[in-house]
Write a structure and sequence with these properties.
Distance between the termini: 27 Å
Number of helices: 7
Shape: globular
CATH architecture: 3-Layer(aba) Sandwich
Strand order of the largest sheet: 1-5-2-6-8-7
CATH topology: Uracil-DNA Glycosylase, subunit E
CATH superfamily: Uracil-DNA glycosylase-like domain
Helix content: 25-40%
């Protein structure tokens, strides 16, 4: 299978995100401050799709969901169900390895206020499509939140109306893949009770089974 297309460190495709990245390089010179690459097993059967890098999470560390609360919940859950090896220490160099699993984002660059624009989601979709095409053993895609859910469906050329987002849903797709939905494991969602650890673990448990 071909390797996935990835955006360059100075990707110019989204002017607003490029400007924000340039400003962050001045304000936070020790951060990664670039499109965050996918992370995990190249033979993955499960692809997890998030929203976008957090300013002081993945944008700082250079690895998806690494360095913020969402990562604490996600990586602890992956470990619980045998989808990782090693210890997550919120650093890109902590030695953690994913097993049969890979993580990417719908938008690769950190957006202002953590909210990418629809045009930015559309522009970044080519990298998601290439990621999927590069995974020969892929069986399931777990979308964390509505933006990721929609990115998956658009990237696969499917109608959103046929596969409505619902936490815990498992959508069989025409191409043989399964799309699983979960609320995003953000601090906001867990603090407000939209998502609990038990709710998130149940989604991953169903996928693992």
């Amino acid at each position: 299978m071909p390797s996935a297309e990835v955006p360059g460190r100075d990707c110019p495709l989204c002017p607003r995100l490029k400007a924000f990245r340039d400003a962050n390089r001045v304000q936070y010179p020790d951060f990664f401050n670039a499109p965050v690459p996918s992370f995990g097993d190249p033979e993955a059967r499960l692809l997890i799709v998030g929203l976008a890098p957090g300013l002081k999470g993945a944008n700082k560390s250079g690895r998806p969901f690494t360095g913020d609360y969402a990562g604490d919940l996600l990586y602890a859950t992956l470990a619980k169900f045998g989808l990782s090896r090693g210890t997550y220490a919120a650093r890109a160099d902590d030695g953690l390895m994913l097993v049969g699993c890979r993580i990417t984002n719908a938008v690769r660059c950190v957006p202002p206020q953590n909210k990418p624009l629809p045009i930015e989601e559309n522009t970044c979709r080519r990298f998601f499509e290439s990621e999927v095409a590069s995974l020969p053993g892929l069986k399931t895609i777990l979308a964390l939140g509505l933006v990721a859910h929609n990115q998956v469906l658009k990237g696969l050329g499917l109608k959103r109306s046929a596969y409505p987002f619902k936490h815990g849903a498992l959508h069989p797709l025409p191409n043989g893949l399964t799309l699983a939905d979960s609320y995003h494991c953000s601090r906001y969602n867990t603090n407000t009770g939209v998502l609990t650890t038990a709710m998130f673990e149940e989604v991953v448990a169903r996928i693992a089974r």
